[in-house]
Amino acid sequence: MNAPTDLKIKLTSFSHGGGCGCKIAPGVLAEILKNSTGFPVPKELMVGIETADDAAVYRLNDEQALIATTDFFMPIVDDPYDFGRIAATNAISDVYAMGGTPIMALALVGMPINQLPVEVIGRIIQGGESICAEAGIPIAGGHTIDSVEPIYGLVVLGLVHPSKVKRNADARAGDKLILGKPLGVGILSAALKKDALDAAGYAAMIANTTKLNKPGKALSELSGVHALTDVTGFGLLGHLLELARGAQLTARLSMAQIPLLPNVQQLAERGFITGASGRNWAGYGHDVALADAVTPVQQMLLTDPQTSGGLLVSCAPDAVEEVLALFRREGFAHAAVIGEMAAGPAKIEVAA
């Protein structure tokens, strides 16, 4: 619960973008990385950069593999405590998305020291600490710099059994796709920046972005779960496309089955869209086939950058009920089957 504060600082006014919408657009990122040189890969590195997975995984021994990830961004909300909570939840999610258990974190802090009161910076860090406490891990160190824009995030380390690692590239034809959280965080954040988000919308946004993806650990124990990732800055389509490319399969989505946060579609129809939505579509839209009945607003919903978004599961049809029951037990009431994987080229097909 957010503790009361009298510090009236509009954090989002210090940054040019917020949350996972700050990510470099997928097309630009591909251009940056296309000429990266190869390097020796040790046999112990189970997961690296090859399929744009959520975290690196390094085998320590027959019983343990180390998960390593980092994530940080600029404010998506004005309340410093909430900003810290959201950023920490988002960073820890990548460990859960690999099927692991987080064990500790390091804080990454960049702040405009001459513009933000130290009390505000302290509240950001306290927010992150509260989420780490909920995840059962310490913040064991970190690094701070004087930055032009406020930046906060974590390096997170976790452990997983080598045989339980859930990559984003192991989906199988016939699998069902399950999404753990509703979409629309980017749209709510756009409305917030324009003072068009009411208290109920803000509460829904905070509840969604500060809910730890703890089901990831239990999902790793299910043999019917074949692939796992989380949905963040590239939107549902972007992260699903990574899954489809890794498995060399076609992903089929049903727009009508995709859960949305309250009033998100109405806000999108009023024009509360982030610039990242368009950049996302420009980067990968050529590999997405939309049915004629899918509207431009729905396209924006599918590319909307999610900060601390939900887990995306590819599982055998006979595992669906167990996966949904697991999500329900952990309080993910909106978890839903949204599509399936099929034989075919690495692309996405979206039906209305």
Describe the structure.
- It is built from 11 helices and 13 strands.
- It is α+β, with helices and mostly antiparallel strands.
- It has a 7-stranded mixed β-sheet with strand order 8-11-7-12-9-13-10, sandwiched between helices. Strands 1-2-3-6-4-5 form a 6-stranded mixed β-sheet.
- A hairpin with a 5-residue loop joins β2 and β3.
- α7 runs parallel beside α9 and α9 crosses α10.
- The radius of gyration is 19 Å and the shape is globular.
- The two termini are 38 Å apart.
Oligomerization status of the protein chains: single chain
Number of strands: 13
- Helix tally equals 11
List the secondary-structure elements in sequence, H or E.
HEEEHEHEEEHHHEHEHHEHEHEE
Strand content: 15-25%
User: What overall form do the CA principal axes indicate?
Assistant: globular
Major beta-sheet overview: 7 strands, mixed
Helix content: 25-40%
Low-confidence stretches: 1-6
